[in-house]
Design goal:
By secondary structure, this protein is of the alpha+beta class. It is 27% helix and 21% strand. Strand 1 and strand 2 form a beta hairpin. The longest helix is centred in the middle third of the chain and has 22 residues.
Length: 112
């Protein structure tokens, strides 16, 4: 039986650049996911207008986006295990699935 060998990956950082971001947005279509990255120079959230200087747009396919999401989630879990929870001021719990009657009403099918 042939052994399923994974290729060795060598990371070449010769042309890498580093960008600091503290503001992000993500938009997606059927075939790509875009991350918009920038810097929010306003530190008071009660301001009427917040100007974000967009520095980068990262475009990837949904498979790469899913792998990135898994890696980011694992990294944040490890960080919080070591340093404590990060409170970002929003509810990060997954949304509950709709109740059966709501699904039946939306689809026209009864739940069995």
């Amino acid at each position: 039986m042939a052994e399923n060998k994974q290729p060795q990956i060598e990371w070449n950082d010769k042309d890498m650049r580093t960008t600091y971001v503290n503001a992000t947005n993500v938009v997606a279509g059927r075939e790509e996911v875009m991350m918009i990255l920038g810097v929010n120079r306003a530190w008071q959230m009660n301001q009427e207008k917040v100007d974000v200087a967009i520095s980068d747009r990262i475009v990837m396919n949904p498979y790469t986006a899913k792998r990135l999401a898994i890696m980011l989630s694992a990294t944040v879990r490890a960080y919080e295990k070591k340093y404590g929870p990060l409170d970002i001021g929003v509810n990060t719990a997954p949304a509950a699935a709709p109740a059966a009657p709501a699904v039946a009403k939306a689809t026209g099918k009864s739940a069995k």
